[in-house]
Amino acid sequence: MKIASVIVDVPARQTDRPFDYLIPARWEDLVQPGIRVAVPFGPRKLQGFVVGVKEHLDVAPDKLKELAEILDVTPVLNEELLSLGFQLAEDTLCFTISAFQAMLPAAIRAAYKKQLLLRGGVPEQVQALFGGKDAIDWEAAEEHPGLLRSLRASIAEGAIEVVYEVKDRAQKKKQRVIYPSAPQEELERLADGLKSEMQQDILRYFIEHYMPVPLSVLKEDVQVTESPVKSLLKKGILTERYVEVYRSPYDEEQFARTVPFPLTEEQRTVIAPILSSIEEKRHEVFLMYGVTGSGKTEVYLQSIEAVLRQGKEAIVLVPEIALTPQMVDRFKGRFGSQVAVLHSALSIGEKYDEWRKILRKEVRVVVGARSAVFAPFENLGIIIIDEEHESSYKQEDNPRYHAKEVAIRRGAYHGCPVILGSATPTLESFARAKKGVYHLLTMTKRMNEQALPAVDIIDMREELRGGNRSMFSALLHEKIADRLQKGEQTVLFLNRRGHSTFVMCRDCGYVVQCPHCDISLTYHRMNQRLKCHYCSYEEVLPQACPSCQSPHFRFFGTGTQKVEEELAKLFPEARVIRMDVDTTSRKGAHEKLLTQFGEGKADILLGTQMIAKGLDFPRVTLVGVLTADTMLHLPDFRASEKTYQLLTQVSGRAGRHELPGEVVIQTYTPEHYSVQLARAQQYEHFFEQEMRIRRAHHYPPYYYLTLVTVSHPQLLQAVHVTERIVAMLRQTCAADTIILGPAASPIARIKDRYRYQCMIKYKREPNLKAVLRMIYEQYQADMAKDLQIAIDFNPTMVM
Ligand code: ADP
Ligand code: ZN
Ligand code: ZN
């Protein structure tokens, strides 16, 4: 009797451990670590992951229940990912089941229908199971337990593939493939018996390529028409079948192939230690600090090439918003169909298909956003994280993992280098590099010795004093006009964060708030409605002020729509493309707008953060930042760092090619060091200055941070629990640990739940996880009801 240890899908503290189940004899061959099963759990039947198979019983067999169903025939998580899941649960105090689920594409997380697809030759009785079809449901196979063993062998050989049927908006396509009906040895004899030369050629082709071939490829390769193929089909010498093709948003032929550039001296210096780390299969973390346009991406590409020559695989992470067609082009252009792409704009089916390509070892490079760090490669040779400072690498809900930490764990497991690249590294990374924890690689020269763009900083207070009430300073106005006249392009950047388009009564100052959250409602001009971005509450714009009945409202905040309107007034002839959440919510809209701009179909590209990254348009010679301060005044200790990063990044968009670039930054605090140092792109100065401030205020990288947020429908309960937690922490933490709180969270109520928090700042606190786990245990009963306690290690956004 064998026993399966199963992590069951009951996200609760007391059940976050493996449970044992008997494996029914008929499934003994099929149950292995990494497959999903259904198990009886109390009165319910639940999903779970098999994490181990044991031969010995610790308890009497009649104490154990049997597995109810097996949901996978092949593992969906390999050994490395299973142990990574346990580690992730440990690191972030999330449930093991959530960690496992986070590593899989949504398509297989949900229990969809499972199908078996016939792909090659299989034993006769298995063939019979398919009854002449190419696909059958898994249930049909399960009715023949005697066949399970040979079925599994065929699956292992790749002759049968297990596929989850996904309801998806992307249509599944089919392709007609042709293959010989006879065994390879017989084809020679059959060919000799044929009269037609063309038919003989076709059979000779199959003697060489004994595998199914799409009809179009066959016609092309053998240079024949369809008619000899038809004759062979009629004679029964060839067989045809329709097979599924992967859903893909990319048309492989659209990518022009590129060849590696001869590297510059600086690139050669930087790539040398990476190549030796690859060569020696040595795990090492590199921080590649290089100004925009210094050729970092080319170094990534050539490092990957070395990895592929070793027969290994590569993961490249880029921030979601930087996953532009241009970025995809560069990887597909170099490595063609060996590249899978994973990002949130793909449909659930497309994502699943990209993931399957990885699992079936049909691709060896993955370019993707955060979760691509879990790509199930088994032979990793490099992991690259571009724009390593981006906060989107941290997942903001459970499991609160940071892709950088996961990458480093995987790099250590596979014995391969991890490269963190950025023009503006996080202070944490740069400090580690300076200490020698990371290997620092520096690139200071822009390609072709292009000068950095000239930057003008405009004091908007001065503009106001001079009587200019417009969103555009006189200088920016003049420069836009100049570009329009020359036929060059402008990018305008609205550094807007949060939802500042609120509605205020002109007479009494009343701001319309969400009834369920402590946050003002956002006005959507399109349908004249007010929306809450935290709980999706909606109402129509009131006719009169709810407080004083005045009919006069004022709309605050400079949204992109408002800028667009003003542009239309100032430059009626200009063609403007606006990119924000409203214009890019449809799938593919983002790409389409960028392509239009790239083709010169517009003069001005106007947008939010999403246009700050990775764009590379030769005709853009002017970048305007309308409000540099919005981010600076957020109550976040990283506000200056984020402002510096953003200004540097946007400036990098101008003058990337022959035409020189100019940047205009409008601000109300021109004297701020973030603004001043970003203008000169003096990262190291900025680093020194900001480090002094971090040290003085006990912030990272000098101290670690952990944020505990308590929420409850009753305010007093939230306060009370937070007080108790603070008291427990004070009792156990080290003397130099700082515990702040209880304090109301920046948004003190969301979805009718009150939120209180406590912040722990510490140098060394080896017992912190144990204490926090104890707190969880103590509140277990309350957490099953109304109480929530969220723990965030190294939170990205701290207020
Ligand atoms: P980064 O990633 O640091 O912003 P890129 O790799 O995009 O820099 O390089 C900037 C530009 O220079 C790109 O257009 C790239 O194709 C080109 N480039 C990179 N390396 C070389 C090289 N060795 N020789 C010529 N051009 C190069
Ligand atoms: Zn709300
Ligand atoms: Zn009013």
From TrEMBL:
It catalyses: ATP + H2O = ADP + phosphate + H(+); Couples ATP hydrolysis with the unwinding of duplex DNA by translocating in the 3'-5' direction. InterPro entries: DEAD/DEAH_box_helicase_dom, Helicase_ATP-bd, Helicase_C-like, P-loop_NTPase, PriA, PriA_3primeBD, PriA_3primeBD_sf, PriA_C. Residues 540-694 form the Helicase C-terminal domain. One of its GO terms (molecular function) is zinc ion binding. Zn(2+) 1 binds at residues 505, 508, 545, 548. One of its GO terms (cellular component) is primosome complex. Binds 2 zinc ions per subunit. Keywords: ATP-binding, DNA replication, DNA-binding, Helicase, Hydrolase, Isomerase, Metal-binding, Nucleotide-binding, Primosome, Zinc. It comes from the Bacteria. SMART domains: DEXDc (SM00487), HELICc (SM00490). Its EC number is 5.6.2.4. It is an enzyme of class 5 (isomerase). Residues 277-443 form the Helicase ATP-binding domain. Its cofactor is Zn(2+). GO terms for biological process: DNA recombination; DNA replication initiation; DNA replication, synthesis of primer; double-strand break repair. Belongs to the helicase family. PriA subfamily. HAMAP family: PriA (MF_00983). Component of the replication restart primosome. Initiates the restart of stalled replication forks, which reloads the replicative helicase on sites other than the origin of replication. Recognizes and binds to abandoned replication forks and remodels them to uncover a helicase loading site. Promotes assembly of the primosome at these replication forks. NCBIfam families: priA, PRK05580.1-3. This is Replication restart protein PriA. It comes from Ectobacillus ponti. The gene is priA.
